[in-house]
Amino acid sequence: MQRYFTITQLTQEFDITTRTLRFYEAQGLVTPQRRGRQRLYTPGDRTRIKLILRGKRLGFSLAEVKELIGMYGSAPGEAGQLRLLMEKIAARREELLEKQRDIELTLLELEEVEAGALARMEELSPVTSEER
């Protein structure tokens, strides 16, 4: 297993910018070692980056991701981390289901408005039987 990763390796692997990695560092999410001006990331940093990106895809904020990652190495440890993760998943699922319901209602309303507009257009420009 590789001992260190450079910023270039990680940005290419995860398709993110160096600015993103530096932002994660500034937020305390990763802590690369320094060799002169070069940042060297450990396999643990690489795993944290993977978890950060997964959390973002799932819709968690960076603060939530940081909270989850931070619990891993301290009390209540992995069990607490998993309980918190399950709570956050349930909350995120409910949020998404609510958005889904809102979208479905909006689509229905759009269909109703569209049908009304089409009906009104037909009223405004009647087509005679000869034009059909």
UniProtKB/TrEMBL annotation:
Residues 4-71 form the HTH merR-type domain. Transmembrane segments: none annotated. Keywords: DNA-binding. Gene3D superfamilies: 1.10.1660.10. It comes from the Bacteria. It holds the Pfam family MerR_1. CDD domains: HTH_GnyR. One of its GO terms (molecular function) is DNA-binding transcription factor activity. This is Putative transcriptional regulator. The lineage of its organism: Bacteria, Pseudomonadati, Pseudomonadota, Alphaproteobacteria, Hyphomicrobiales.
